[in-house]
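hey can u check if this looks right to u? its 325 residues, i copy pasted from the old doc so theres a chance i mangled smth
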Amino acid sequence: MRFSLRGLAQNWRLKLAALALAVLLWAVVSAEQPASQWIPVRVDAVVEDPDYVLAGGADPAEVLVQFRGPGRELWRLALERPTLELRIRDVGSARSFAVDPGMVTLRERLQVEARNVRPAVVRVPLQRLATRAVPVRVRIGERSLAHYVLSDTVRVGPSMVRLTGPEDELARIESVPTLSFEIVPDDNDSTFTRVVGLDTTGLGALSLAPRQVRVSGSVDRREERVIPAPVWVPQGTAATPGRVEVRVLGSRRALVGLTPTTIRATIPRDSLPALIPPGGADAAIVIEGLPPGTRATAVPARVRVTPGPVPPPPAAPAPPAGRAP
């Protein structure tokens, strides 16, 4: 036993090198030998039928493909992860499609051959495409709305746009907004015209045509007027304070004829309790008589309403002349 171990230990470096060389030669020879191997391959479905669109991924998402070729080529193929391209040209009523080795895409330099596929049928979820016309909704920037008032209906051309996509996606779209834009009036400071893109955010897979519209309209400068006004209260009540400032915001033309006699700051009777307590009740002021397209606020917005003096009863009619009372 000692002799065997001593003989094995002699020239151990040379023997180890010989073993490594033998393993290397075996690996080289094995790499060149033809072999067969099953490799998972991703399925890429491509819909070429113009009436349909993919509604999800293929099921199963991967199939097993049997490849044959040199061992070293099969190793490289497993690392590169080939794909199987399923082209669907005429959908009809089909939702399941056969796959075959010829659909596997390989790089030209790989000397391997696809021979079999498992499973041989995959299911692809599809949806029919539909087209629907929806109105365009104009979206004007906050800065413009703070300085201008639209004096009439905004004109949009075209006023309807065409959406194309899956039917269930189309059903949720009621309108398509424009991108927010600022008004730039023409030289006469009363009209504007802009070509504006449409906002496609949230459309997902839906396609849109056209993608721009022309928006035009008339505008007027936004102004504010402050008018002092008495507070009108129901009979038998009094308001504190009895006068307020009414701030009216609107277009310049709408505010031209505005006077203290054209608006009223009132307290509606139905906004008060049926029996007003002696200490009074707070009530909100309602502004009446405003021009169209304007809005107003009262300062203060609420007043204290208290029971007022009871008006005297009407005087009895005088007896006819010439008769004793």
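The mean pLDDT is 84.
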